[in-house]
Amino acid sequence: MANYDRIPSGVSPPLIRPRYIDDVPILALTFWSEEVDHYMLRRLAAEVEDLIKQEPNVSITTIIGGEQRQVNVRLDPTRLAAYGLDMEQVTGLVAAANHASDSGNFPSRQGQVVVHTGGLLKDAEDVGRVVVNVYKGRPVYLRDVAEIEDGPSDPNQYVFFGTGPAAHEKQITPMEASKGVWPAVTLTVAKRKGTNAIGVADKVLERVEDAKGRIIPDNVQMTITRHYGETAKEKSDELLLHMLIAVVSVTILIWFTLGHRESGVVAFAIPVTLALTLTTFYLYGYTLNRITLFALIFSIGILVDDAIVVVENMVRHYRLPENKGRSRYTVAIEAVDEVGNPTILATFTVIAAILPMAFVGGLMGPYMRPIPVGASAAMFFSLLVAFIVTPWAAVRMIKPEGSAHQGDHNADDWSTRLYRRVMDPLLHNPVWQWGFLLTVAGLLLLACSMVAFGLVRVKMLPFDNKSEFQVILDMPETATLEDTAAAALEMGEYIKTVNEVVDYQIHTGTAGPFNFNGLVRHYDLRNRPGMADIQVNLAGKGKRQQQSHDIAKRVRPALKAIADRYGARVKIAEVPPGPPVLSTLVAEIYGPDYAQQKELALKVRDIFETTEGVVDVDWYMEEDQVRYQLDIDQEKAALHGISVGKIAQTLKVVLEGQPSGLLHLPLEKEDVPIVLQPALATRAGIDRLGAIKVPAADGSLLALSSLLRVQQTEPDRSIYHKNLMPVIYVTADVAGAKESPVYAILEMWKKIDTLKTAEGYGIVQHTAALPETDRHLAMKWDGEWHITYEVFRDLGLAFGVVLVLIFVLVVGWFQSFSTPFVIMVAIPFSLIGILPAHWAMNAFFTATSMIGFIAGAGIVVRNSIILVDFIELRLQQGMPLDQAVIDAGAVRFRPMMLTAAAVVVGASVILFDPIFQGLAISLMAGEVASLLFSRMTVPVLYFMDKRWESGHLKPAGKKNDSQTKTAS
Length: 968
Hints:
Blueprint: E1 27-32, H1 38-52, E2 58-64, E3 69-75, H2 77-82, H3 87-97, E4 99-108, E5 111-119, H4 124-128, E6 131-135, E7 138-141, H5 142-145, E8 146-152, E9 158-163, E10 182-191, H6 197-211, E11 221-227, H7 228-257, H8 260-284, H9 290-303, H10 305-319, H11 328-354, H12 364-368, H13 370-397, H14 414-428, H15 430-452, E12 468-474, H16 481-495, E13 501-508, H17 516-521, E14 531-538, H18 548-565, E15 569-574, E16 585-590, H19 594-610, E17 614-619, E18 627-632, H20 634-639, H21 644-656, E19 658-662, E20 673-678, H22 686-690, E21 693-695, E22 701-703, E23 708-713, E24 720-722, E25 725-734, H23 741-753, E26 764-766, E27 778-783, H24 784-814, H25 819-824, H26 831-840, H27 847-876, H28 881-891, H29 893-908, H30 917-952, H31 961-967
């Protein structure tokens, strides 16, 4: 409000209405009936609303639909003229009569006496008794010049309720199909910030259930048409189950590979680490929601890595012949010390890989931030647990002697013997060596080419599987409320034939209960006669074969055919899996002249409509509409003492009605306004408006037609601005052939490039930033593309920071500039598994896939660090370089395999989640590919690097014996 004084005179004050995520209703209750009309349903909903408001954690309640009770004062222009009255004068008299106040007080023998003046209007009869004039010595009452009735307001919205073939899912009694739809009113409930949606919804429903038979009669049905508390509970229960499955699965994995006592040690470390991670979430202010639960599930596979490495090395040391008979505490300390430093380094490399993702900007950043924050905290706490809790538990639970897995440590199994036989020619035969490296590089190039050839498609987030979607209908500007209702009802007739539909609500001339998507797209502001939306509720995802996206695709052609018959535009609005945007495809048109912008927007809209896979095309521009411009003859009006403002105010009363106070009814739950307006028959037409009379200064009445000149003109249209530049939005969605906006944009980009302006220059298309000036026509791509670009850009930058951090950490530990490259070369090998796995699963490569790849990079580097550190340990023990490389790969394969298997098992529980499937695929396939290739590639490259160093960086006489032997 700092610039409030700069508002020009005559401009209304700005309306600032902040919106928050908690404004989205968590509960929608629809009241409908075969016997009760819209008017009585509204009054019933108001009674229930008053009951619900008593719940402390309820914030905003809204009644949608129905006809509000009001006193309709139908002014008769003829009678008004007969008594020498005008409408503006009458509205002022009614408002003045509905007044009462304490005038003061005075002292008396009875004490202080209060004087109260006036009286309030309490019913329609009181309104009719208001004196509006004195004519020929007798009072003129309002009832003498108007018809007065206490009842429903004129319809300005319609809400209907219909059922589908799956109505039994909500125990809705089957009705006769010929009945069609029923009058309905929807009551929405939003919760207070920081409260539990499940608890608030349950408390509200308890109150509503108690009201049945007392406030809600038997002939009125109540159906829950939105229950986000139940949805949240379903999601949280499902994810908690998945988390339990992941913990048990990892424990069983360790059981079968190391032993039941060892699995108990690892299983003991998991809840301790998760408890500490939950504490971090609590301190950060994160609630337990879908994202934080996914962060915990994502963490399970990697938080056991440190415990596995420590336990496996302790078991290996216990089984060494030279440790037989030694104190188990001493052996445990030596085992932990052997892997301590590389484990610390490896853990911090994983944190370095994950944590930078927390700095992703835009809408997607806060949405996904709990994953890097939670995973980084889990890794740090898992390191502490691995060095404090795990050894303490291991020495008490693991018995060195008599183990079921006890055996000769020096006896290699078949896989280790095979590994040694394969590695020998790879280290000593240059042909095999270079052939193997070129093969790995070729496989990597082939995998990456799958993106270039479209076998793997890139998308911000995949489609979610919700149990709802909306049908957004925009009729021509000239459409009446009844025209819109006819089109919406015809769409409802089709929707009720779709097998998966439980119920649907038609909202005409008003907005339905908005969700987060509607909050961003401003669906809650849709209140014009030519607008409608249909809320469609589907059966639960476990009770239908197709996902909601496939159902939306299936119904779109039929709904579009209906809309085309009415000249309307229709959009199928699905609930997005992540941050919502204005639309999937958004083209913003900027330029120096609004007419040129409109011309260009039309061409862009035509390109959208002719591009395969692009659907639901629309633009933010009102269509043509009839508008009459009434020019007032100011000279003539002035001669009769009539002001321009008086004429405008009279017409406003005639066309819109004039509220003149409220009835004072203590028991009524909603306000009952007194509205003065002529009947529709006396105002529907320009000729009828001209017959309205206004009083002149001499007391005579003049018809408006004598003071007005009527001409038909173009209506004013809304002008949208972005960064103070006029903009026209062209919007669309993608479905069918191209379900990722990236590929649709690439195709349309070429078509838009061919467009030329009248001045002869081409259209500049921007991807990330707005045009610097609006002096030339330009276009910017927005919508999901902007978030996609922003997120992948930030993730790419985060990955660059990851590589630098890992490089610095490894250089600091190994004191070498070549060793980090050997270790980090395993990072891209995960793509050999990730991209083909996405193709095999027919999954998009999404932002969560990228997160999985980056997180996997840290795990891959972790394994490589431990492997290289073990090679150098063997070298320090005097083993030749080639044997040290082979032995390290053979000995460290089991912990590498266990950590990879733990990641695979932990991620497998989210493999079929529509949002996080990409993350699961990247972790699972990336770990398998990296395990197979890095186990051989890293040792081979390390061997080549050290052999080159021994031949070029040291004097010939300084070579150690092992390196001389290897080089020969």
